[in-house]
Amino acid sequence: MSQTTLFLLLNASLATIYMVFISSILATIVGLPLGILLYITRKGNILEQKSIYQILAAIVNVGRSIPFIILMIAVIPFTRLIVGTSIGMNAAIVPLSLAAMPFIARVVENALLEVNRGLIEAATAMGATSWQIIIKVLIPESLPGIINGLTLTVISLIGFSAMAGAVGGGGLGDLAIRYGYHRFDVSMMLMTIIIMVVFVQLIQWIGDRMVHKFSHHKR
Amino acid sequence: MIILNEIYKKYSTPSGEITALNNINLRVSPGEIFGIIGKSGAGKSTLIRCVNLLEKPTSGQVIVAGEELTSLSPSELRNARRKIGMIFQHFNLLTSRTVYDNIALPLELCGYSRQQIKENIMPLLDLTGLMDKINHFPAQLSGGQKQRVAIARALASQPKVLLSDEATSALDPETTHKILDLLKNIRDTLKLTILLITHEMSVIKACCDRVAILQHGELIEENEVGEFFAHPKTPIAKKFIASSLTHTLPDAIRSKVLAFEQPDTHPVWRLRFIEKTATQPIVSQLINQFNLRINILQANVDYIKNHPLGIMIIAVAGDTSKIQAGMLYLQNLGVQLEVIGYVPNNIISFA
User: Fold this and answer.
1) Interface confidence (ipTM) of the complex
2) Is A204 a residue whose pLDDT tops 90?
3) What domains can you pick out in chain A, each with its CATH number?
4) Which residue of B has its CA nearest to A217?
5) Test the B interface: residue of A126, A130, A132, A219 with most B CBs within 10 Å
6) pTM
7) Are the C-beta atoms of A89 and A169 separated by less than 8 Å?
């Protein structure tokens, strides 16, 4: 392997890591509270609010039903507004974050739904406020489920980031298209695939370790 | 300590309105263990949840420790709930917290410092016998241990009242006994008032001072426990008491008991003493006065609040007319007599 190839691969890998990392964090910052809000306003829960739940659920569903490749193009004006350009890594972060937000929200909501309602009842009987129930009961009890969901999201984002590469986002996807596809560079294509597989394995491994750490059910 | 005034709880369902609680009036005195017994679906859980307003009654007043909960604002209600402990059938412990941290939770909610929490819960760990388990997670504990943690947690904020929602229903009889002993013990040491609901007569028998029966959302009979067992008024009360006295014969004998009388058989009687007859020497009376021969197959006398409550299964041999006279004698004494079958005389010896 030539030094240029190595350089290209390293650069592209770092770009992918950067895009996935930043968009994961941004998506979590919005998606986690959104998921909690979905859960608590849901029918029969601590802050039941039918109208708020329906509005949030509709937004999340719309967000999740747009294929990423279309979302990416559709939000170009918004991306330009925020980043100033629609090309490059920073520009790719905008649609990546937007795509992951509703996904995380649903994943968090589902993890919270798994929490035994008896625990919420017990906390209510102890005189806990809604905020205390969220912080001291709901989040700690659903943490393994939330981490599982976040792992899933990060892995999806690696795939999405490759798609972003196809429209000038940079990263491993960009490399695979430009060298592997347009220049018939099979070895480059293979290398990008291998690196992505390693990334996915690594993230899954870290996720599983964390789930194990926070899970105190019988095992 | 707990006063329920004209509590109604109604649910509207697509098929019409359901009255889960129908005009409940209840008074639980300080330091008392009050049991409410009822079959599943009678409204027991709804009733106990109305006491700390986990369920809001449709109408009526709930007064706990002199405070009318039904008139409080949400934040006042939260404060009032901190003085009402509650334990549950399925324990409801946080799986993500250790034993110590579970017990600490109610104090964290009140904003206690780490030091204050420690000072408060150490005596409780001692009382509930959990000292060696403080760093365990609930998944590592047995059912009885989990309920001990739940009890310690319920007591952490030093409540005046403890509500027990079928707390022993998921436990085996031996563990049930230990948990009930613990409840009696904490009532005595902490001067707590306990309201418990159960579907098991044995729980009432083991630890309650007073009892009420809930049927179809109504409290139909209420009494001091000894009196309740001695003089049950309603048919359902009698049924509950009888069910707690159901003793069956060992298989070896039961399989030989015939349903109908045949030549060379002896009747088998089940005698229940729920009136004041358990102190009478009835066996010697049957022998002396009626010249009967008695073989006791099984006998058990319980003492509930010093009131004897017994069951006896006997095989009887003698003249037919004397057996009839003996039956009449027992029935006149108020013994509940039931002929459960006939045993061939080669099975049971009267020699």
Assistant:
1) 0.85
2) yes
3) 3-114+130-214 (1.10.3720.10)
4) B139
5) A126
6) 0.81
7) yes
